[in-house]
Design goal:
Helices cover about 65% and strands about 5% of the residues. By secondary structure, the protein is mostly helical. It has a two-stranded antiparallel sheet with strand order 1-2. The radius of gyration is 15 Å and the shape is globular. The two termini are about 30 Å apart. Keywords: Acetylation, Cytoplasm, Nucleus, Secreted.
Length: about 100
């Protein structure tokens, strides 16, 4: 059976973490550089509209080694999703993501 859209989205979230975490050092964590590169390449609309300061505020609290583990990564994505949802609701509560 074909994976549902949500199952596909979860698989993609994991795949993207793994794609960037293998670039430098620890394969189970993203460095701050890897996280920034991921945001620029994988979230281009967000990164163009966001200042460096607001990106820093949205980033999870980095460990003393400046790395982000998978839990911190999904927390970052959850914060971003909540922010996007709030913006969409403010713009048009009756038409979130083009649905009526």
């Amino acid at each position: 059976p074909m994976a549902s859209p949500l199952e596909q989205a979860l698989a993609e979230i994991i795949s993207i973490f793994q794609k960037y975490s293998v670039k430098l050092g620890n394969k189970s964590k993203l460095s701050k550089t890897e996280l920034r590169e991921m945001v620029v390449k994988e979230l281009p609309s967000y990164s163009k509209q966001t200042s460096e300061t607001s990106l820093e505020q949205l980033m999870p609290h980095l460990d003393s080694d400046n790395e982000v583990d998978f839990q911190e990564y999904v927390t970052f994505l959850a914060r971003l999703a909540m922010m996007c949802n709030d913006l969409l609701l403010q713009e048009s509560p009756d038409n979130v993501l083009g649905r009526k």
